[in-house]
Input
Amino acid sequence: MLPLVLMLCGGGRTLEDIREMEMEEGLRQLCGFARLPSADAVGEWLRKLAHLQGLEQVNRFQAREVFVRSEANDLMVDVDATMVATKKQCAEMTYVGCRAFQALLSFMAELDVCVACGYREG
Output
């Protein structure tokens, strides 16, 4: 799970970004990874929905740690729905007329952290 969380925190948008991380020897050494799982292996793992609850728990823990350690007093939550266009038939049509998956993300910009996420069809 840690490679996936690192990829997302580093701005990764697709599982192929895991391949980019594999080439970063310094990052692997810093995190204690001899090697990283392939993008295909991570994709297979994510398809098993039971693991998604674990990812949500990791995100909640990390967000809480950032919040507790922060000295910020005024915080604002920014909620953003992000559509990821796809050609997959299982994806629903969006209001703009393309098939997409939609992630609903909530950020605290002052702390540069995602505090919640959700998934919606289309």
